[in-house]
Amino acid sequence: MAKKKTGDGKNKGQARKAAQIKKNGKQQKAFGVHQRLKSHTVPAMQQQRPVGISKNKKKQKGGNAAGAGSATAPAPPKEITAGVSSSTYAQSMRILLVGEGDFGFGAALSLLWGEAGGITATAYDDEAVALNKYVATTENVETLRSLDATVAYGVDATRLQASAVVRQAKKGYDRVVFNFPHAGGGIKDQARNIAANQQLMRGFFACVCGTGLLANGGECHVTLKRGQPYDSWNVVTLAKLAGLRVRHCTPFEAARFPGYAHRRTIGDEHAGDSEISSGKTYAFVERTAEDDEEKKGKAAKGSKGGKGGGKGGEAKGVKGFMGGKTNKVLQTGQSYKDAWKQRHRKGKR
């Protein structure tokens, strides 16, 4: 005759079953996270990996990842790229994040690496304001601090050296990152809005260039939305006036930073990922004396090519000035060719 299960035995069986389901679920979740992270691996890194992996090793890796045993998920990638490989953020770098809002970008970057000791994430708002404006602030800050990142509130992007936290990097930062900067304030007049944001960027660039904030070979990354009024900020010109130059400009791909979502200065109620679908990241570096000499050399070479020595150079210059319209006449009755020759003789070209 079959024995009747007691209530205590039934509870123990259910507990064992629940524990096994929970264990399997964690393994599947870890594998799923790894699979998603693999899609964000940088092309440059893939080229650096050894290619001579045997089939047995591949099978072994696949079995460990998908099996129901005690296998652990492989380590996440150590680098990530926004756009192309030349704008890499590496785990070994010292990275300063400015104007973080809810600290979402820093949290996303640190989770990809599983460690964030080189990240210093800062926000303009003080802690009370940030917690009130953005729901995810608490979770993101806990993530950053649990992975050894440094977090600071109340840091003004135009007075970075005033922050003791920012000054801790004695040798400067390899990357100074300002994603989607905005002066806020709800200024409706577009001209005043543009002026306010230009003032913000001028102050920021002044902090970055010639102050030791950037390490040797370091880059300053500024990500903006495309179109107006952002194009009218003329950040490239402002950076140039501060002593920086553009190393490259790449599309900002938010999908490469899982979990990151753009937050506006006004708060969560006006957040939207669609707003950053067409963003672009400028990578600026400090301009050197060699850069200036190279620019002068190119300018002199171009001037020499335009004057050209003889009819060949003159013809090239005439074509550039006239756009190939040799048979047209100016309102003064002068031909395009004669007008170009006159300007050329006066040395105005």
Number of helices: 11
Gyration radius, in Å: 29 Å
- Percentage of β-strand residues: 5-15%
CATH uppermost class of the largest domain: Alpha Beta
Bulk shape: elongated
Portion of residues within helices: 40-55%
Helix/strand class: alpha/beta
Return the CATH architecture of the largest domain.
3-Layer(aba) Sandwich
What's the end-to-end separation, in Å? 110 Å
Provide the CATH topology of the largest domain: Rossmann fold
Name the CATH homologous superfamily of the largest domain.
Answer: Vaccinia Virus protein VP39
Let me know the number of strands: 9
Number of domains: 2
Order of strands in the sheet with most strands: 5-4-3-6-7-9-8
Order of helices and strands: HHHEEEHEHHEEHEHEEHHH
Low-confidence stretches: 1-7, 26-78, 81-87, 312-327
Q: Quick one: biggest sheet?
A: 7 strands, mixed
Short key terms for the protein model shown above:
single chain; alpha/beta; 7-stranded mixed β-sheet; two-stranded antiparallel ribbon
Set out the fold topology.
Elements: H1 7-38, H2 43-48, H3 55-66, E1 79-81, E2 88-90, E3 95-98, H4 104-113, E4 119-122, H5 127-133, H6 137-146, E5 150-152, E6 173-179, H7 190-208, E7 214-224, H8 235-242, E8 244-251, E9 280-286, H9 289-307, H10 311-322, H11 336-346
Parallel strand pairs: 3-4, 3-6, 4-5, 6-7
Antiparallel strand pairs: 1-2, 7-9, 8-9
Helix pairs in contact: 4-6, 7-8, 10-11
